[in-house]
Amino acid sequence: MTSRNYLGGGKCIVYLIIPCYNEEAVLPETSGIFLEKILTLVKNGKISDESRILFVNDGSKDKTWEIIKNLSSSDRHFIGISQSRNRGHQNAVLAGLMEAKDKCDVAISVDCDGQDDINAVDEMIEKYTAGAEIVYGVRSARKTDTFFKRTTAEGFYKVLRWMGAETVYNHADYRLVSSRVLKEFANFKEVNLFLRGLFPLVGFKSAIVYYERHERIAGESHYPLNKMLGLAWNGITSLSVKPLHLIIGLGLLVSALSFVAVIWSVVMQLLGKTVAGWASTTSIIAFLGGVQLLSIGVIGEYVGKIYMEVKHRPRYIISERAGDF
Ligand code: UDP
Ligand code: MG
């Protein structure tokens, strides 16, 4: 066992980081589950009573922030920050992690809809006490997902890996990170965030905890297919330049094929067997046009990302706070 120096003296201060976007339907129920978990861990002497449940309101349009404010005045373990507008799940988690960085020993990011089994927290804390600086929550099964969600999600991890973006298979954003990792992570200044690919880059000793992913308690998913595809593309382009290498490969292949075609046409010409040639010429032009546009598009995506990065705009803006900070 590694001995650790805890901020709170004898015991480890845990911050649960919970992003919330339009979650009025689930928050009243799940907040109770989170509180019970923290209180039980405190009672059993596993964590410090200074531990907190930090809700990050991601610019919700419903009563989410009112609910968070009420919770914060009902129990000192609940606190909340509100973003000035909706910035998306990744930025909401980032805002929470940065808020917790200097106040906790470990931060655990967890969805607010009850899908991530909160009981995995016990094992995460055990792995941390045993020396791990990052503990990844990994889904043991996807029984509750539809066939479509399961295949697209699993395909997502495979494509990411193939494209050179190293991630932990079937790990989303349910993870424990130590304050030491958070302090190093604060130096990763990128605007295009893909947290699950960034933490492996921070390094340090890590561990895995398996958990079962439940169904959403109420409300609807905010991750339809187009957002999932967007996240996948962001993951690939943030972590890897493989698409640019693929373009080079494609360019070489097309050039080699064209070279063969040139020889073929010269030979045909010399043999006096010239064809009318309209169909073949147009198809070659169309094909090359397509390949070029696609390649320029991929390069353009990277240029666009560079543009967003060089502006150094803030990744989140906190407009309000609630509770005992
Ligand atoms: N979320 C957020 N901002 C957004 C979308 C989602 O903070 O713009 C939060 C949401 O409240 C939830 C978590 O991110 O706690 C995961 O979202 P959701 O459950 O909708 O996605 P799914 O679990 O279906 O992938
Ligand atoms: Mg969910």
* H/E element order: EHEHEHEHEHEHHEHHHE
Helix tally equals 10
CATH class of the largest domain: Alpha Beta
Q: Could you tell me which ligands this complex binds, including any ions or cofactors?
A: uridine-5'-diphosphate, magnesium ion
What percent of residues are in strands?
5-15%
Q: What is the CATH-assigned architecture of the largest domain?
A: Alpha-Beta Complex
Transmembrane segments: 244-264, 284-303
Membrane topology: Multi-pass membrane protein
Main location: membrane
InterPro entries: Glyco_trans_2-like, Glycosyltransferase_2, Nucleotide-diphossugar_trans
Describe the structure.
InterPro entries: Glyco_trans_2-like, Glycosyltransferase_2, Nucleotide-diphossugar_trans. It holds the Pfam family Glycos_transf_2. The protein contains ten helices and eight strands. With 325 residues, it is of the alpha/beta class. The chain folds into two domains: 14-240, Alpha-Beta Complex (Spore Coat Polysaccharide Biosynthesis Protein SpsA, Chain A); 242-311. α5 packs parallel to α8 (225-239). The model has no long low-confidence stretch (mean pLDDT 87). Bound molecules: uridine-5'-diphosphate and magnesium ion. Uridine-5'-diphosphate binds next to β1 and α3. Uridine-5'-diphosphate is lined by residues 19-21, 23, 58, 86, 88-89, 92, 111-113, 115, 221-223.
